[in-house]
# Entry
Amino acid sequence: MNFSFYMPTKVLVGSLTEFSDLIKGFGVKPCVVCGKSSAKLCGALADIKEIFGDIAVFNKIEPNPTITSVKDGAEFAKENNADFIIGVGGGSPLDAAKMIAVLAEEDISFDDLSNAKRLPLLLIPTTIGTGSEVTKYSILTDEKSHSKINIASDLLFPDIAVLDAKYCRGLPVSVARNTALDALSHVIEGMLSKKASPISDMFAAEAIRIISSKFSSLIEGKITDTDYENLLFASNLSGFVIAQTGTCAVHACGYALTSEKNIDHGRANALLLCDVIRRFPHENTDKIFKIMHLSYIEFSLIVNTIIGEKEQITKEEIENFTKKSMLAKNISNGIWAPTEDEVREIYANSLEVVS
Ligand code: NAP
Ligand code: FE
# Structure
C-alpha cells in the first residue's frame, strides 16, 4: 500500500447553537459570507447573530462565484475589521469564503498560496452536495476567460465545519436533487480516481450506500428531515473523498456546461455521469453498482428519472466544450481517461443534440 490521507478540519455534527462554546473561541467579530437570501431564510444568520452578537454580513455571493465577488468580499471583511470568516450556504459561498479568508489577510496571487496566511475559517453547508466544508478547493469563475478555476491548497481546508441539517430543510427540490447527485458524482469519481486509497474508498462506499438509499425520496421530491441529515452527512463524506482523490472526467466535462450554458454544477455532472462511468473498466464500476444493489441499466434509469428533461446542445457547442474539457487537469485523473473523440461522444450521448 502506498497512500496519504490528510483532513485537518474539525467536523461538528448537530445544532450550531449547541456548539457555541466550541466556536466562540474563534474570534470576536465574524464576517459572514453568504448568498442573497438562503442563509437568512434557513435561520443560520439568526443563530450566528445569537452566538456572536456583532456580525458583518457579506451576502453578495452568486452561484458559481466570481473572482470579483471574492475580492469585494475580502475588502468588506477588512473594512469591518472582521477577525474570522464564517461561510454559510452551498458550495458557492463556502468556496468564496475560503479565498475571502486568504485575501482579507493579504492581497496575494491565487497561483501560489504556499506561503500565504488566512483568517480563521468556519463553514456551514446548507446544500447536500459539494462537501466544500472539508475540502482544500475553492472553485471560482474567471469572468475574463469565462471558465472555472480550481484553487487547491492545504491552506483552504477550513478550521471547523458544522453540519446542522435543519438549515437544509427549505432547499428547493431541484437544488436538493442536483446537489445530492453532485455528492454521488464525487464519490463515484473518487472510487475511479488514480488517487483512490483504502480510506477514501471506505468513505466513498458509505456515501454511495446512503445516497442510493435515498433515490426514491429524491425522485418523489419528498425529502424528510432524516433524509436531509443522512444526505448532508453523505455530502460531507464526499468532501473527505475528493479532498484526497480529486474528481475525474465527469467534473472535467461538467464545468463547460455550467460556465457556458448556465446548467447548475450538480445537474451538469448528473447529466454526464452515466455515459462517463460506463466507459470505465467494469471490474471497477461493478463494485459501485454492487454497493447500490443496482445494475448499470437500473442506475441509469434512476438518474435519468431524477434529471427529467435534458438540455439541448449544438454541434458547435460540443466542439467548443470538448476543447475546454481536454484542458481540464482532472480529465486524466481517472483510472480511465477519455480521448478527445470520446469527450465529443459523451456530450452527444448525455444531452439532446440539435443542429
Ligand atoms: P450554490 O451555487 O451554492 O447554491 C445554489 C442555490 O441554492 C442558490 O440559489 C442558493 O441561494 C440556494 N440555496 C443554498 N442553500 C439553500 C437552502 N438551505 N435553502 C434554500 N436555498 C438554498 O449550490 P451548490 O451546488 O451547493 O454549489 C455549487 C458550487 O460549488 C459550484 O461553484 C461548484 O463548482 C462548487 N463546488 C465546490 C467543491 C469544493 O470542493 N470546493 C466541490 C463541488 C462543487 P442563495 O444564493 O440565496 O444562498
Ligand atoms: Fe462537484
Observations:
- The chain has a mean pLDDT of 97.
- Residues 34-38, 42, 63-64, 89-93, 95, 126-127, 129-132, 135, 137, 139, 167-168, 170-171, 175, 179, 182, 242, 265-266 surround NAP (ligand 1) (CB under 6 Å).
